[in-house]
């Protein structure tokens, strides 16, 4: 199976519609990699940053927040390896932030100002919950014992309070002692699910490979795994707000990972639905053992769901509990939008044992039709490659993808007609982008450079001027 321009034309109206949703043929078949040469759509060409940090289109600007190693409080610094992130509206008084340290006696602390005590109650202020993808390495996440799961693990999450202008007001480590916190997902009841992309490491004192819940307001975060969501190399999660079904990706090899759903036993509008357990299932598409075999955007496949025998993987890794199942190399980003779960396969290589080569796929799963649909595929050697984290944009219904590919690293957007374009470029180094997400009012796009050093960017500009 392969996509060609002629093959797409032969697809007729359905094929044409799928391309309109997926992105232009130029974006899919582009073969010239390298510097930005201009955009006929999106927000125009990227302008070189005089500081050599982040190239953006004309009219856009950025601020850097919460750099790895920045001091937070006595003996605590911003952890490293910034990764998956979500935003939440800031509201209420300081009582909603019981774990936030008092920085009034530390005038040299970066980002602190006299507005810290009141900014969380002002319109447009945002709370970010951000992952740190570290196991027993990197700049350690340090938190009080009541927020620490395994003292041997260096990963965790940080909560940031940001005002409506994208300035950092305060931050603290909201969960520690977890490992390899890669991506995750926001819940309909207003919390963050942080995912461990691991099945353990040598120094651990507790099992790893779980999902944990983090309260952005610091009221009920507990370092207790949600065991019903399984123990495997979690990448991301997205929750259907109507049924509370969670969809999960697994980034693993030997064998490749699976796409899962978790159906809670109790239909409650909060985290109790997950604490009470449920049924974990894996996607199995008939006659498609590897998603890389599907290469034509617009292809729709009926989903079948198979129960996971042992979600806690007490003896055998979850993905090894199946003889016949649908797998994919590098199942990564996941986001809920437009009534569907958008999920990403970063790349596929036959040299790694995959069935076919590609440089990235974007899929959707529609629970109403119980179908997955290939929306976008990148050809190896093209301008864009290695999509990872994903968010659905409030402007025109497109998406923003964070690259973790070869060569230059981009934030890749899609227009109202879903034509792909370069939204930003890492001008400093080759570190991947992560944690792409909009503020709750849509004014600010947040994204992370993962390392060297890790940093969060707050990007603002004329979002409504989207062309195409």
From TrEMBL:
It holds the Pfam family PhoX. This is PhoX family protein.
């Amino acid at each position: 199976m392969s996509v060609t321009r002629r093959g797409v034309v032969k697809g007729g109206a359905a094929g044409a519609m799928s391309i309109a949703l997926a992105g232009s043929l130029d974006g899919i078949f582009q073969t010239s990699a390298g510097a930005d040469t201009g955009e006929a759509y999106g927000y125009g060409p990227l302008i070189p940053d005089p500081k050599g940090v982040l190239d953006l289109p004309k009219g856009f600007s950025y601020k850097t927040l919460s750099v790895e190693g920045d001091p937070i409080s006595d003996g605590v610094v911003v952890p490293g390896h910034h990764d998956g992130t979500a935003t939440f509206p800031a509201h209420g008084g300081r009582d909603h932030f019981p774990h936030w340290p008092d920085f009034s006696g530390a005038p040299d602390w970066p980002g602190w100002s006299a507005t810290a005590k009141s900014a969380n109650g002002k319109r447009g202020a945002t709370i970010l919950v951000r992952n740190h993808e570290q196991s027993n390495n990197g700049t350690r996440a340090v938190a009080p014992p009541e927020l620490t799961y395994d003292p041997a693990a260096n990963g965790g999450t940080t909560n940031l309070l940001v005002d409506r202008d994208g300035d950092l007001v305060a931050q603290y480590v909201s969960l520690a002692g977890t490992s390899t916190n890669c991506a995750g997902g926001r819940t309909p009841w207003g919390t963050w699910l942080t995912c461990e992309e691991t099945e353990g490491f040598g120094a651990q004192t507790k099992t790893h490979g779980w999902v944990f819940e983090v309260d952005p307001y610091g009221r009920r975060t507990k370092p207790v795994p949600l065991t019903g969501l399984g123990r495997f190399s979690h990448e991301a999660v997205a929750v259907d707000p109507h049924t509370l079904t969670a969809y999960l990706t697994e980034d693993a090899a030997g064998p490749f990972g699976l796409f899962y759903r978790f159906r809670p036993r109790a239909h409650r509008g909060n985290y109790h639905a997950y604490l009470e357990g449920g049924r974990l299932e894996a996607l199995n598409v008939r006659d498609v053992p590897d998603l890389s075999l599907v290469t034509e955007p617009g292809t729709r496949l009926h989903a079948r769901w198979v129960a996971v025998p042992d979600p806690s993987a007490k003896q055998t890794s979850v993905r090894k509990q199946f003889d016949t199942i649908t797998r994919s190399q590098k199942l990564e980003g996941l986001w809920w939008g437009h009534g569907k779960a958008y999920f990403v396969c970063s790349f596929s290589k036959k040299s790694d044992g995959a069935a076919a080569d590609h440089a990235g796929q974007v899929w959707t799963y529609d629970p109403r039709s119980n179908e997955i649909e290939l929306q976008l595929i990148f050809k190896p050697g093209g301008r864009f490659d290695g999509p990872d984290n994903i968010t659905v944009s409030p402007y025109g219904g497109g998406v923003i993808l964070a690259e973790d590919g070869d060569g230059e690293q981009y934030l890749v957007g899609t227009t109202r007609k879903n034509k792909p374009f370069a939204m930003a470029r890492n001008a400093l180094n080759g570190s991947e982008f992560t944690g792409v997400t909009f503020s709750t009012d849509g004014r600010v796009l947040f994204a992370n450079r993962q390392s060297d050093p890790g940093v969060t960017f707050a990007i603002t500009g004329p979002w409504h001027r989207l062309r195409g």
